[in-house]
Amino acid sequence: xIGFYASLAVTTFKKRRLRSWLTMLGIFxxxxxxxxxxxxxxxxxNAVGAQFAALGTDRIIIQAKSLTIGPxxxxxxxxxxxxxxxxxxxxxxxxxxxxxxxxxxxxxxxxIIDFTFIASMPSDGESRRxxxxxxxxxxxxxRLIQQNDRAKVVLGSNYAEGAVFGxxxxxxxxxxxxxxPFEIVGVLAKSGQPQVDNTILAPEDAMRGLxxxxxxxxxxxxxxxxxxxxEVVGDRIMRELRRFRDVEENREDFTVQTSGQxxxxxxxxxxxxxxxxxxxxxxxLLVGGIGITNTMYTSVLERTNEIxxxxxxxxxxxxxxxxFLIESGILGVAGGLIGIVLGMGLSKTVEVIAGQTLGTGxxxxxxxxxLLLGALAFSFIVGSVAGTFPxxxxxxxxxxxxxxxx
Length: 406
Fold this sequence. Notes:
The protein is built from 12 helices and 13 strands. The chain has helices at 2-15, 17-55, 82-89, 125-134, 194-197, 204-211, 230-245, 259-302, 304-312, 317-357, 369-395, 399-404; strands at 59-64, 80-81, 94-100, 102-109, 112-121, 139-142, 152-155, 174-177, 180-188, 200-203, 216-217, 219-224, 254-258. A hairpin with a 2-residue loop joins strand 4 and strand 5 (112-121). The longest helix is centred in the C-terminal third of the chain and has 44 residues, at 259-302. The protein is elongated.
């Protein structure tokens, strides 16, 4: 019987093509928006997860708490120090620790000035290796910072594209940072990570002299020993710094986070943002549902005589009810299918444009089966719910009154 009802619905749609398309408009716009937003959100979450997987699960990041949003160390209320770093290195379970300075800088080349971030590279070989592994630093030209380098820098890949200083910078060029001369010894390969592609790397000793910071540390990165639980090592670091800095529990002026905790926090934020955007897009589905309700009520009025004829030859109330209910459900499913295709196309277009213009692989579209199946089921439910009351009205019509209706 359901197949018969569906065939009747398709026949009705063919007779009213324009109205059917207009009715589905709100549905497929809403589904397209939801699919594209959720797929991009899920893709971003997957890409970030892959970045953290490359970072490793045995990494721990220590920072001073900050009042402002920005790179670690910017706007800090209380800075970390070299003494804090020494304490962290001695904590049981710590394999390698690296200290970093992260500062804003005025960069000048050929009388063009740019303001960017400059990050230190540790002088110790093991610490430098840790930073290189975490951020997957590889040079496209030249070399990385070495132990005996002083007034040398390595540039992020964006400086090799010529957009900042009018021409591409390369190894051997010289520029000025905070009015001090530096030589470029390498340019990093494109990583897709904005914080790497837009930054400048300098030797730690050079940065301390440049900013007059003999003791400050903006961030400490730790790798735990093999076999050690990073969460446990992080707790030890927290207790040791709390005791050394003489601060009470829950009133720390620093943070200690494992890479897993950072991923969990970021994932929660992305889920909330995606849900809010999807909720906004769902307003279009509400509009689409109202459109289906209006169309089905109109259809009941137009087909009153037809309903009377069907009832006079034996059609029961439930038959009439299911005919109109399935019609509205099919409208929802058809709109959902079109919306899914449009949503996939939109999100893939955003992914391609972002990859070409921003040079980042973080903007990706992901289409898990549950997203597509859920969107289709949701569109069917919206259509069915929207058609329930018109279907009930149609099923309750008296056949005699229906045959007399003009």
